Amino acid sequence: MRLAELSERSGVSTATIKYYLREGLLPPGHRVTATTAEYDAGHLRRLRLVRALIQVGGVPVATAREVLGHVDDESLGRTVRLGAALWALPHAPEPDEDDPAVVAARAEVDRLLESLGWETARELAPLSPVHRSLVVAVATLRRLGYLWDAELMAPYGELMHQVARRQLDFMETHASPTEQVELAVASAVLFEPVLRALHRLAQEEESARRYGIE
Amino acid sequence: MRLAELSERSGVSTATIKYYLREGLLPPGHRVTATTAEYDAGHLRRLRLVRALIQVGGVPVATAREVLGHVDDESLGRTVRLGAALWALPHAPEPDEDDPAVVAARAEVDRLLESLGWETARELAPLSPVHRSLVVAVATLRRLGYLWDAELMAPYGELMHQVARRQLDFMETHASPTEQVELAVASAVLFEPVLRALHRLAQEEESARRYGIE
To answer: Which residues form the HTH merR-type domain (chains A, B) (predicted)?
Structure first.
């Protein structure tokens, strides 16, 4: 398809598509003549992913380019390619390690990962911004006097593990490895709002069931 | 305890406590003399909740006052008091009902609630900003070409229901109804970052288990 059709089918203006092409977020089309190029289904999919990252996820253009670079780098392991977006999303800043709430939170998160048997998450901990975000969130709770510990968190960890397993199972139903990685990256950005809304709706439902609606 | 001790034990400056008192976010202390007042454990707990809402949840002062008004209003049903913070948090704006993606998303969310048997959530749907957020999130996915439907979402809804049940069970272990409501409001704000981090960490763990770390 030509640029005009790509624009029509993706709902993205030709000016924006040209901008993404210049910024290297979208691979160039296949040259037909000096002034026209052909685009294919891969371009359409990639455009969808770029919009998910930038417009929905609020990821800066430079970060999106970095994420897509990892997605396309077939020399990288699949875990790294899948995790590219997860690690590139905004995360909590480095916590203050002198803060007793941070020290206690880190110890509880360590105990949690041990009790869940999440061995690789423990291995990746020193590098992972995701691990850091959990430490910061638990430290915030503890600082306010809500003493969340490993025992309290473990059942939620198990439930989130079921969510993650189901997401990867779904991803694996997709044909090509490129499509799988693209889907994983998009869902890192797009699925969180769905999960949060489902959680809030479940709270509403369960609370109304137990205590009625007046 | 006096104001100085309340400040020390809560980690909130006396200036900020006085501001919260003036704004009606914290009930006045018990007058001892014309210039001094006594504060109790209830004040300490309330201060913790105010900080959770304002500093962690980013809730504006006027909204926090509204939420706390609901929390304290014993004439309201428990579901409304518990849900006060949930409804006051920032939510998606009204979707464009002429957008075919919104129409399709709303139909899928209706089918989802029916298949889950979430009757009260269905009843509250026209009023609920939580329901609206789910429609908007699903519409965004569909607009990008990810055709999420009721069947795909149902298992995640079941898992989130388990999370919500566990949260209410925990809340019910607390002594007084006021403490229970305060805990529910605080957790609406504070627990979401923990759940999100656990979800991301579970994705990291499951992906590393399946595809290894290179």
So the answer is: 1-70
Assign B31 to helix, strand or coil.
strand
Does ipTM surpass 0.95 in this model?
Answer: no
Which residues 26-55 on chain A approach chain B with CB closer than 8 angstroms? 48, 51-52
Locate the domains of chain A by residue range: 3-76, 88-211
**Cβ contact, residue pair A144, B56, below 8 Å:** yes
CATH code linked to domain B3-76: 1.10.1660.10
List of chain A residues whose C-beta atoms are within 8 Å of the C-beta of residue B123: 213
User: Which among A86, A118, A193 is the nearest to B200, CB-wise?
Assistant: A86
Q: Is A107 touching B (CB cutoff 8 A)?
A: no
Contacts (Cβ under 8 Å, ≥6 apart) of B31: B37
A68 in reach of chain B (CB within 8 A): no
Shortest Cα–Cα distance, B200 to chain A (Å) = 6
pLDDT digits (tens, 9 = 90+) for A161-192: 999 999 989 888 877 777 888 888 888 788 88
Which two three-digit tokens encode residue B121?
A: 């959530």
Residues on chain A touching B152 (C-beta within 8 angstroms): 170
What are the residues whose beta carbons fall under 8 Å from the beta carbon of A157, sequence distance 6 or more? A112, A116, A118, B198, B201, B202
